[in-house]
């Protein structure tokens, strides 16, 4: 009887793993939908892609749900933005997921930032300077040129893990990069009216976007990265915006609306509300439509002002 | 006059000499300058020539790129006589690229070498320090500035198979190793083994360090039943069931459960029946994207507690946490409702343990135990004046319950108000029960600095007390968001 009970318990606990139908597709888990979209283009029918974030979240405050641990537990590869962007949830989830394959330095851990030209790499690390990212600003997903490097990192990573499909990944990558290149040429042409325009964002996550399209990231509503604003900081910011004729205030949609509106009203700047990731608004269904949405929304604001 | 004429003649001669010699020096100087100028012009011409050649090469390469592929309409017409083939241009381009790369690499090599230097200290673990201070005022105990703790956290990978961490706390009571544990990282079958001293996987908030609690003080139910933090020396095996539904199962084997649990000493050997064994199951239900429930059940079983007349002890807990976190606003909006219900069953002496430490020591020695002095904890601190200190104790099976429930709102990135209700029966059934009501307000100045104001109304039969607290907590250095602290 005792042995029967032990056997029953073992079957109940280990059975789900042993009896689960073998799925031949490569299970890819991305931290953000932008990378998930690229993985679908590059992996094609060979991959089954999921994303932890839906795109509406603040990457620095994605709720750490245990259901993500089970998702990561079954992952063959993990795609991440890197540069410590996911520090608030990913290290703990990886610990809970118990999947050595996707631990940092594991074969399935694909950091998409490895070849990106990183901006704002701090020369001094000190918490008085805010919630710093020691390896540099991680919000490169708003720049399509940087994201070409992310796409290459995905193809390289998938090819490293599944060399038998390397040729497919490379072919799909070339096609996807060509598509991005065509769009980048279009976007750069369309972005001409943005040249030299100054913007203030809630958090320093528009820096890559500004750099790519000739804008100037002037400052942030946050006092420092990750530090909520104080009244004196807002007063100084508004004064400085007026003196320097800053025309745009960007509210990334995962930050509170009230203060961004107040700053825009007080300085006569135009308020622009932008998603930070694919899926952040219904129109941003994939990476190309995400950049389209951001650029066209910004253009509308600049040309209307 | 003749003298003057002679002087004038000398002066004229000098002047004439000067006139003839000075221009010669100036001429020589200007000749030198002219030569240098010539050399510079030559260099400039050479550079211009070099630039012109480079420009030609760039133009050729650009022209080659614009040539349509063979077979395309107009391909022949677009070809320019004398222009290199695409292969040759590609080779030139490659050569140029290699040259430039080599030149850049030569230049940055010294900086790369400097940046790539390694030091033995680079393998030092991540270190963080948490400072926790509380100013308090109570009706009976009056005011106090309490330096609660400076808690040093150290963590690093051990090797590819394990990581280690330690929490060393300095407080007015001295230094204490709160945790020092080894955790496996690469076991198969979703298993994790933890060994050393750590907070056992019992319930939810008993695994939180004091400064990590949502309120100033640990709920009475946890203090009285678990013994504060669930600190344990032992080993724990945890299993993530490989299903889509999140489910973890934990089994633990410890000397005892609870930092302030003085039923058993940590330092003496014991029979297998005197260890504490733990089982826990925890699951999660995502009701919607924004609403979720964490549910857990824990059971700590000690087959034989010597000080409790050798009877067994059962400590059972159920914890439930509801969270509302709107995905797009999770950093500044939300609601958490957390509750734990505890049930304790064990033999306790009628009227409680005797008061004097000598008596406890005598009793303990007689039982062959190494029970710490009376002052060390609540379990042996009950006083019964009715009984003589050395009289044989009469034990009775006691069932007691305790619970806490709290609701905390996240109004902004900074402001977190909340309310805690706490209820705990006296384990010895001497003092009845205690309840407390604690509204509190937390102000997060940043992720690393927090102020908290709390009022607590403590009520026991025939007794009550008002308490006020102001807590100031900061984090220095390395800080990670742990899964168990969620």
What is the overall shape of chain B? elongated
Number of helices of chain A: 10
N/C terminus separation of chain B: 116 Å
> What average pLDDT do the residues of chain A reach?
92
Strand content of chain A: 5-15%
Give the distance, in angstroms, between the N- and C-terminal Cα atoms of chain A. Answer: 80 Å
Topology of helices and strands:
The complex is a heterodimer of chains A (305) and B (486).
Chain A: H1 2-19, E1 26-30, H2 33-43, E2 47-51, H3 66-73, E3 77-80, H4 90-97, E4 109-111, H5 144-161, H6 166-190, E5 198-201, H7 207-212, E6 216-220, H8 231-243, E7 248-252, H9 257-267, E8 270-274, H10 287-304
Parallel strand pairs in A: 1-2, 1-3, 3-4, 5-6, 5-7, 7-8
Helix pairs in contact in A: 2-5, 2-6, 3-4, 5-6, 6-10
Chain B: H1 2-66, H2 75-78, H3 86-115, E1 126-138, E2 142-159, E3 162-171, E4 174-184, E5 191-199, H4 220-225, E6 231-240, E7 247-254, E8 276-286, E9 291-305, E10 311-324, E11 334-349, H5 357-366, E12 395-410, E13 415-425, E14 433-446, E15 449-460, E16 463-477
Antiparallel strand pairs in B: 1-2, 1-16, 2-3, 3-4, 4-5, 5-6, 6-7, 7-8, 8-9, 9-10, 10-11, 11-12, 12-13, 13-14, 14-15, 15-16
Helix pairs in contact in B: 1-3
Explain what this protein looks like in three dimensions:
The complex is a heterodimer of chains A (305) and B (486). By secondary structure, chain A is of the alpha/beta class. Chain A has ten helices and eight strands. Chain A is 45% helix and 12% strand. In chain A, β1, α2 and β2 (47-51) form a beta-alpha-beta unit. Chain A is globular and about 75 Å long. Chain A starts with a helix and ends with a helix. The relative contact order of chain A is 0.12. Chain B has helices at residues 2-66, 75-78, 86-115, 220-225, 357-366; strands at residues 126-138, 142-159, 162-171, 174-184, 191-199, 231-240, 247-254, 276-286, 291-305, 311-324, 334-349, 395-410, 415-425, 433-446, 449-460, 463-477. In chain B, 24% of the residues lie in helices and 42% in strands. The model of chain B is unreliable at 14-27, 68-82 and 357-388 (pLDDT under 50). Chain B has a 16-stranded antiparallel β-barrel. In chain B, a hairpin with a 7-residue loop joins β13 (415-425) and β14. In chain B, α1 packs across α3 (86-115). The A-B interface holds A 13-14, 16-17, 20, 54, 56-58, 60-67, 69-70, 73-74, 87-89, 91-93, 95-98, 100, 103, 127, 131, 226-228, 253-256 and B 185-187, 189-192, 239-246, 249, 282-284, 286, 289, 292, 294, 323, 325, 327-332, 412-414, 446-448, 476, 480-483, 486.
């Amino acid at each position: 009887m005792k042995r029967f009970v032990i056997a029953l318990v073992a079957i109940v606990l280990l059975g789900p793993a042993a009896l689960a139908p073998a799925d031949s597709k490569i299970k890819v888990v991305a931290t953000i939908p932008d990378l998930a979209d690229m993985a679908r283009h590059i992996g094609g029918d060979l991959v089954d892609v999921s994303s932890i974030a839906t795109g509406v979240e603040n990457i620095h405050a994605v709720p750490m749900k245990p259901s993500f641990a089970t998702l990561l537990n079954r992952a063959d590869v993990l795609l991440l933005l890197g540069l410590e962007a996911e520090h608030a949830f990913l290290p703990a989830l990886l610990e809970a997921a118990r999947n050595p394959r996707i631990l940092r330095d594991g074969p399935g851990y694909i950091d998409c930032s490895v070849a990106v030209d990183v901006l704002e790499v701090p020369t001094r690390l000190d918490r008085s300077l805010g919630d710093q990212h020691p390896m540099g600003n991680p919000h490169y997903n708003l720049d399509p040129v940087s994201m070409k490097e992310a796409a290459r990192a995905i193809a390289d990573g998938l090819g490293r893990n599944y060399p038998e499909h390397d040729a497919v990944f490379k072919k799909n990558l070339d096609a996807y990069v060509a598509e991005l290149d065509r769009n980048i040429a279009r976007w750069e042409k369309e972005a001409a009216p943005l040249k030299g325009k100054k913007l203030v964002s809630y958090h320093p996550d528009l820096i890559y976007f500004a750099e790519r399209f000739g804008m100037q990231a002037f400052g942030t509503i946050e006092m420092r990265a990750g530090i909520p604003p104080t009244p004196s900081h807002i007063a100084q910011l508004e004064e400085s915006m007026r003196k320097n004729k800053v025309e745009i205030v960007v509210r990334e949609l995962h930050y509170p609306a009230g203060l961004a509106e107040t700053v825009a009203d007080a300085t006569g700047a135009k308020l622009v509300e932008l998603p930070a990731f694919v899926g952040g608004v219904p129109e941003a269904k994939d990476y190309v439509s995400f950049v389209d949405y951001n650029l066209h929304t910004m253009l509308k604001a600049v040309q209307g002002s | 006059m003749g003298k003057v004429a002679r002087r004038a003649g000398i002066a004229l001669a000098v002047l004439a000499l000067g006139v003839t010699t000075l221009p010669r020096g100036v001429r020589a100087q200007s000749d030198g300058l002219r030569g240098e100028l010539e050399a510079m012009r030559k260099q400039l011409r050479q550079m211009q020539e070099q630039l012109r050649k480079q420009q030609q090469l760039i133009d050729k390469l650009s022209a080659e790129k614009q040539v349509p592929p063979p077979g395309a309409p107009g391909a022949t017409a677009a070809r320019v006589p004398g222009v290199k083939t695409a292969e040759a241009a590609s080779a030139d381009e490659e050569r140029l690229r290699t040259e430039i790369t080599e030149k850049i690499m030569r230049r940055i090599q010294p900086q790369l070498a400097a940046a790539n230097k390694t030091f033995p200290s680079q393998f030092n673990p991540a270190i963080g320090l948490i400072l926790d201070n509380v100013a308090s005022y109570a009706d009976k105990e009056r005011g106090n500035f309490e330096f609660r703790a400076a808690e040093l956290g150290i963590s690093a990978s051990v090797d590819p198979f394990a990581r280690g961490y330690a929490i060393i706390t300095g407080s007015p009571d001295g230094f204490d190793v709160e945790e020092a544990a080894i955790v496996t990282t690469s076991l198969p079958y979703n298993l994790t083994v933890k060994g050393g001293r750590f907070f056992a996987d019992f319930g939810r908030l008993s695994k939180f360090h004091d400064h990590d609690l949502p309120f100033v003080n640990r709920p009475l139910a946890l203090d009285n039943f678990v013994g504060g933090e669930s600190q344990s020396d032992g080993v724990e095996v945890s299993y993530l069931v490989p299903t889509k539904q999140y489910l973890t199962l934990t089994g633990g084997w410890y000397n005892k459960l609870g930092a302030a649990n003085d039923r058993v000493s940590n330092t003496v050997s014991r029979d297998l029946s005197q260890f504490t064994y733990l089982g826990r199951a925890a699951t999660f239900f995502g009701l919607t994207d924004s609403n979720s429930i964490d549910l857990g059940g824990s059971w700590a079983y000690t087959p034989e507690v010597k000080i409790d007349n050798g009877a067994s002890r059962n400590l059972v807990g159920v914890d439930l946490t509801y969270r509302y976190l709107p995905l797009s606003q999770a950093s500044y909006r939300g609601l958490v409702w957390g509750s734990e219900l505890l049930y304790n069953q064990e033999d306790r002496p009628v009227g409680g343990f005797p008061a004097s430490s000598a008596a406890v020591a005598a009793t303990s020695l007689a039982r062959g135990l190494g029970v710490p002095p009376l002052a060390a904890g609540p379990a042996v601190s009950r006083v019964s004046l009715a009984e003589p200190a050395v009289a044989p104790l009469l034990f009775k099976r006691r069932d007691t319950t305790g619970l806490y429930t709290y609701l905390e709102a996240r109004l902004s990135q900074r402001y977190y108000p909340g309310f805690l209700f706490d209820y705990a029966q006296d384990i010895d059934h001497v003092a009845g029960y205690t309840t407390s009501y604690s509204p509190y307000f937390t102000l997060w100045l940043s992720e690393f600095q927090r102020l908290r104001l709390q009022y607590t109304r403590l009520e026991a039969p025939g007794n009550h007390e008002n308490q006020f607290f102001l807590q100031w907590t900061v984090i220095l250095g390395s800080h990670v968001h742990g899964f168990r602290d969620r």
